[in-house]
Queue: 2 jobs
Job 1
Amino acid sequence: MIHQLGKREILILKHLINAQRPLSSELLAVILGTSPKTVRNSMSVVNDILKIAGGAKILSKTGSGYTLEIMDENEFRVFMQTFNAKYLDAYWVPNEASERVEYIVRRLLMSETHLKMEQLMEALFISRVTLSKDLREARRLLKTYHLRIEHRAKYGLKIVGKEMHFRVALVDYLDADEDMNNIDDLMHPPLHKYDAKLMTEKIVKLLLSYGVSMSTNSLRKLVKLVTVSEFRRSKGHLIILSDEDTLNLPSKVEYEIAKAFYQDMWDEIGHIPEREIAFMAIFIISRRNMMKEEPFSVLREALYMDYSKRLLSYLEEKLGLPFLEDKLEVAMAKHLRGMFYRLKYGLEKRDVGILESKGSNPSFEYAVIASDWISEQLGLPVQETEIAYLSYRFYQFYHTLFSNVKSRIMIVLSSGRNAVDLFVEALNASFGSYIERIHSAEIYELEYLDLSGYDVIITDIPSVQFSVEIDVLRVNFFFTEGDIQRLKCYFTNRQLESSQFLSHFDRKLFFSGLKAHNKEEVLDFLSNALLESDPEHDSGVIEAIIKREDWSSTERGNAVALPHNLLPADTTPKIAICVLQHPIIWDKEVCQLVLLNIASQHERMPFQTLNLLRVLTGNVQRVYELINARNFDAVMEIMTRFITTYEL
Amino acid sequence: MSLIHVRIDDRLIHGQVAMIWTHSLGATRIMVVDDEASRSDLIKMSLKLATPNGISLSVLTVQKAAERIKQGVYEGQRVLLIIKTPGKLIELIQQGVRITEANLGNLSSKPTELELSERLSLSSKDVADCKVLMSKGILLTKRLLPTDENQAIAL
């Protein structure tokens, strides 16, 4: 069996790549929820692999920690490309024994009859206990394909589910890796009846001529799906679709593509069942990327435009942000078209960075709330990958909004108005998007002017010379590095209201050394603490926190979870801090630091505090410091340092 | 025919081969034929990491590879075969695998008898083995990129 890189090794590599300074084994141990010794062992595996395949090696410096040294730039770049494509995030990688689980899933998928547990135990040289553990992981994996393992006494194990889902799962498990230890009878020749390159070329030509696009990854899966479909058909497994399913399909361009492809490929074979064409069409719809500039018939796609409008007005109402704008409406309708097909037929996307989105996409929350609405409308569950994928749609929107707090600036220069033009130009070049208007004055004029229409005075005169009500920011006429930094901080803080961020913490809501075994216990404990500390927090907020957790677990990687309420509540924002005595598995990821946030309607932007916590915990060094902080004051020192040096 | 390309390369799968060749050949599987690699978990793991996403990997001994290929297990797949030296390729052929063409990728044999290019240093054994391969009617090339002209090397 070819061993895959384990989750720990993948994460170590990711942390090393992102590290701005050396990472100690103690720090990594905390972040990965393991011991320094285990980290050192994994590190040596990663180092060996990098040397063989990555054009890089790991340097270990006593006293500071590990860093990555790149020896061959080209080789490393190609290696990283493959690495990132495979492990967009480590979310899908089981915590243990991924290759065994993969073998089991594959073997069960390929089997036409029940498989005895003993057969699997023998093939893998494992005990019944180990097999049970692996089966649990396999079940979990298969569930994301809408398949389950049936266990019948005397017969054994068999996967059951819809044919469509068998095929989609088989696409991912079709071609096994093999080495001397696992050459097996799994490869049923002739599984591949048709040449992959030929099929790819035909499909690409059709996609281009119909102006339909999909990712390379989806294209590869589509080609494999054709192979799998033929294989399954040859074994007598047929796709079942209702009349309602196929009613509108023939009018769609994706159906034309599927039809043209099958006609071209199988002229000699003759009849291809209608439902095979329909299935391929559905798959193309579910994987198609509708680009921003791509035409979209508002009339033909009225259904999705309608859903899009209703969804956005729901968000607008709940979050008080201007979601209803033409561009977003169309982009959302395009997204919903594919998404509805994926949800309806259980063809959810998998190649989406879930942890990445949870950890760094500030618009992730919009997607969670939107999914809650969509799920209710369609009466269908929404998987986390779909939430993460949907969150991409809101990203642009978020960024336009985020820079919406613009400043009104008064400039006062020691050399007088003469020199203002150059100064304004420099200011605009770097911070134009944060500036509403700029005026200038001589210092002696100030006491006669009404400054209430201004937010700040920017000047090269020492600030003691000013006696005004508004902020005064002193910089040099020619900006130094430090000046740029100061200006950056000023404009950022205008967005963030940093003093408010610090006021959300509460000495009474700091807990260290909590013993808990799972996230339910942690959430129970924190809910009680919240209710005790402030009767204002009614149980509604707690319910909203649980509901949010059910939609998508709030682990964000780096041993951190950020539980919070689904919709901002009419209450003051709060942050409770809980450092667990021992790391736990929150949902799929390790967690030792829990920052529970009550999101409030009174924040300048919905989920602003939560997003700051996201950024805060994106830095492993800070997480490490927080987990090791002795008391509340030490925590606040870290928080203060974070917020005052926050950069845009 | 499932073997779409044979590459002699003592670096096995590395950056360039993996990306450029796999893509342009439309390979669906990379087969590394190497006794040492097939015994080492670490090398196999590294090879797997270097294999592009969605491409399957086989790491087999010469004997096992020959067996599997002859059984027709890979029919319909597009296999890119990588083997370390011309000598090993001869072994594979002796086991009954039919090959018509092989491309020399990287060889850094010492002591070097013949330097065909910056990345191709052949020992006297390599040269002899290449001659054997050529005498069996196998076209030996030294294309760096798939788009390069497919010209036979002269020894």
Job 2
Amino acid sequence: MRSLISAAALILSAGGALAEEATMKLDVTGLTCPSCSYIVATALKRVDTVGIVAFTEGTSDDGTYLLRYDDAATDPDEIISAVTGVGYGAALSPETGS
Amino acid sequence: MTEIDIQQTEEVPASTARGGWLATGAGVLGAMAMTSCCILPLVLVSLGVTGVFIGQLTALYAYKWLTFGLAAGALGYGFWAAYRPVAEKDCASGACARPVERGVMRSLLWSALAVVLLALAFPALAPLILTF
């Protein structure tokens, strides 16, 4: 019985190791109003595991979000879709390394 | 010199009341237009509503001074119609709005004014009350 529990624990921990925390920079356009960056942030946070680390406001109605997410739970395409789904332009920043 | 005692009433002539109601309606619409660029989309997204129209609504921010001008003009006329003293003799024909209607008009005007002021102050308040 003890060996069975150990095996289960090992499998669970191995599964946890597969899920990795990733970061990405997302360029968003169309931030024309004072609440736009918050609207986009709300849409982003609705995606499973996504958290906003930082937001940098651009100079021409745009901005860059630094995001943290679990790449086992979601991917950049889903995150971009969340933003375009509320009517804003979004693209992976060229600065994104991972 | 003769003193003339003018009796005032809460009732207003029907034509003024009609204009006042139109102005009140325009003021309320103007207030809604002012929230449609910033506050309304934020509320909708917070409630789980999504759609490309959210981004299109926020694009209306570029016209905020136009909507403010229309709302301010309408509210100004509405307040004038709702609060202007009316001589009792002007209502002698019986064609006057009832005082209770004037009270409703005043409530709507004050509510619309509050919304317009909130929408105006929102850009300054947003960083204080909203977080990422």
